[in-house]
Amino acid sequence: MTQDTRTSAYRRLSDHLDKNSDGYGPLRGTLGTARMGMIWLAANLVVTTLLTGTLFVPGISWGLAVGMIVLGTLIGGSVLVLVGNMGTRTGLATMSLTKGSFGLRGSFLPVAANVIILMGWSWVQAMLAGVTVNFLVEQATGFSSPVLFSVLCQLLVVCLAIFGHTGIARVEPWLALVILAFMAYIFTTAFLAYSPSDFASIPPDAAAGWTPVATLDVVIATAISWTVLSAEFNRLARTQSAGMIGSGVGYVLSTVLAMTLGATAIGYVVLDGGEAVPFDPTVIVAAFGAPLAVVIFLSVMATNTMVVYGMVASVVNMAPSRRITFLPTAIVLGAVSILGSTWLALLDRFTAFLTVIGALFIPVFAVMLVDYYLVKSRHYGRDILRARGGEYWYRGGVNVAAVLVWLIGAGTSLLLTYRVPSPIGATIPTFVLSALLYWAWAAATKRIDRTRRPHTHLLDLPDGSPERADR
User: Fold this and answer.
1) Which of 51, 88, 106, 171 has the fewest CB atoms within 10 Å around its CB?
2) Cα(first)–Cα(last) distance of the chain, in Å?
């Protein structure tokens, strides 16, 4: 194959991806409620969510763990749905929407944090898939190389993600159906062996260090970790109702199922006389066999594809420059994600990782929701697509008030987590404090828009492209 042929093939693929709106700017969605629901269902039927459920039992009782999973998912899911709806209404990805509240340049801060967090997610999930595949291969052949299998799993994920949102939308629903079938098998196996009352009778182990409030915080933090991608995928929805209902039902159902499966699987291990080792896929795979390993592998393929795509979308949508295009960005970030999947020690720090996500992004989403729905009266104009100047320039491109609220909120979250434990956890007080502080600033500076401008998708608003406006 000649160099010209290779270059031509690369350029054709790059042009195809950019043409299908994986590049900068708003996107008009085409997907209905059912398709959105299936995408979100597959998204969180993932090994990390499943293994998060293994953290709680036997630290607290199985029944209480399930109750906290449901409550935390509903609370965190409401934030996810509202941020996702901003994407449906405007056509913008999540991190592009931060320009409205943080400023055209101030948004670079949450974007950078988002890329780092998503990169960590991609590493963790690739490692868990690799460890699981390695466990099965080692049992069958004696060969063991978890690093190799982690790299191979992430390589496959990057190949899937390179084809952008179109490929994801096609693959996710089918993977969801397969994963659900295997999950049904595992639930059936567990409850045929032991009744729900048997699981509920497992004595809590205080030495595990878990409380109902700590469990609730982790479940909400899981929803917050997914909210960084909510507008990316909800902007694919044809209507607001399709996006909100699809993401709400899909996310809540998938999270409750996955975490409850994890809590049930580790409870099964305890009832069977085994040791409850949390966040270790090999423990529950040994108990349930290959079907659970299939669930873990397919869930990583489905979810990590979305994670890598989300990283790329965040960078591509960071600034209105056609020099930052989808394909080269995907290749660079994909290569980093593959290399990072060799760092298996990160698996021992997963709970701390979730805490950092909550501390960083709970105040970000509190500011975003207050700014869009209350301060800006549910309207962002085309100035949000500019490189400089306009309504969202604030002072030097940065809304200092939003950045300060973010810092105060993040500090509060860490303080309530590690120094001054709160009887209602850290996530809810952090969100409320951040929202109230930003609202108070907007009211004091008379920035609240009470004109109730009609909703218009950014693609339907008049004015030229951001490139023409800035030249």
Assistant:
1) 171
2) 41
Q: Which residues contact 312 (CB under 8 A, 6 or more apart)?
A: 22, 161, 326, 329, 330, 333
Contacts of 451 (CB under 8 A, 6+ apart): 377
Crossing angle between the packed helical segments 212-227 and 62-90, to the nearest 10 degrees: 20
Q: How many whole angstroms separate alpha carbon 255 and alpha carbon 240?
A: 22
Please indicate, yes or no, if residue 15 is contained in any of the structural domains: no
pLDDT, tens only, 255-276: 999 999 999 999 999 999 988 8
Buried b / exposed e over 259-271, threshold 16 CB at 10 Å, is bbbbbbbbbbbbb
What pLDDT does 470 receive?
35
Residue from 426, 381, 431 nearest 405 by CA: 431
d(CA 259, CA 347): 18
Closest CA to 57 of 235, 189, 202: 202
Q: Specify whether the CB–CB gap between 217 and 358 falls below 8 A.
A: yes
DSSP annotation string for 342-409:
T-GGGGGGHHHHHHHHHHHHHHHHHHHHIIIIIISTT---GGGG-SS-STT-TBTTB-HHHHHHHHHH
- Collapsing DSSP to helix, strand or coil, 168 comes out as helix
Which residues sit opposite 398 in a β-bridge? 395
Structurally, the chain folds into a number of domains equal to: 1
Q: What is the pTM of this model?
A: 0.86
| Residue 119 resides in a domain | yes
Task: Report the candidate in 161, 107, 32 with the shortest Cα–Cα distance to residue 394.
Answer: 107
Instruction: Give the span between the Cα atoms of 255 and 250, in whole angstroms.
Output: 8
Distance of CA 157 to the CA centre of its chain: 16
SS3 70: helix
Distance of alpha carbon 145 from alpha carbon 297, whole angstroms: 16
The CATH number linked to 74 is 1.10.4160.10
pLDDT in tens, 47-96: 888 889 999 999 999 999 999 999 999 999 999 999 999 999 999 988 88
Alpha-carbon span 56 to 51, nearest angstrom: 10
- Tell me which H or E stretch contains 195: none
Has residue 125 been placed in a domain?
yes
Domain range for 270 is: 30-361
Characterise 320 by phi-psi region: left (phi > 0), alpha (psi -120 to 50), beta (else).
Answer: beta
Could you tell me where the DSSP H helices lie in 194-239?
Answer: 196-200, 212-227, 230-234
